[in-house]
Design goal:
It is a single chain. The protein is an all-alpha fold. The protein has a single domain (2-152), classed as Farnesyl Diphosphate Synthase. It is built from seven helices and no strands. The chain has helices at residues 2-26, 34-39, 50-55, 57-79, 86-108, 123-136, 140-152. Helix 1 (2-26) packs antiparallel against helix 4 (57-79).
Amino acid sequence: MSEEGVSFGKALQLTNVLRDVPGDLAHGRCYLPARELAALGLGPRDLLEPAGAARALPLYRRLLGLALEHYNVAWDYTLAIPRLEWRMRLACAWPLLIGLATLADLAAHPNPLSVTTPIKISRGAVRALVAQSTITVWSNRALAAHAARLRARIAV
């Protein structure tokens, strides 16, 4: 379970990194892989320009796909928790559901590198995810289907 736990953390961390790219760039930070940016002929400052941000989209989309792979492993971790440990399952499911919904919003945006405000899901969407998962937490099939619906929204 240790390897799955690492993927769990990587899924959430990578989602935060991808969501925060524009804000980080505005503060002089860039957490995208420097080598991969350089391979595209880009540096972090280039991403502040619309043309540079557009050229970096293939890298961004690849990282979205990597995050999605980590989410898939993280769900295996979550579903391995016994059903009677429903509080633990919810403690794992909630950040994964919120993260997947955020990833879906990032994937749906035409150029998430050029946004001026961070892309995040609404409080209402969070409440809906929490409410639905509270009902489905007892069933691996229902909980997995909930996650699958979110994953299906992510085209990378």
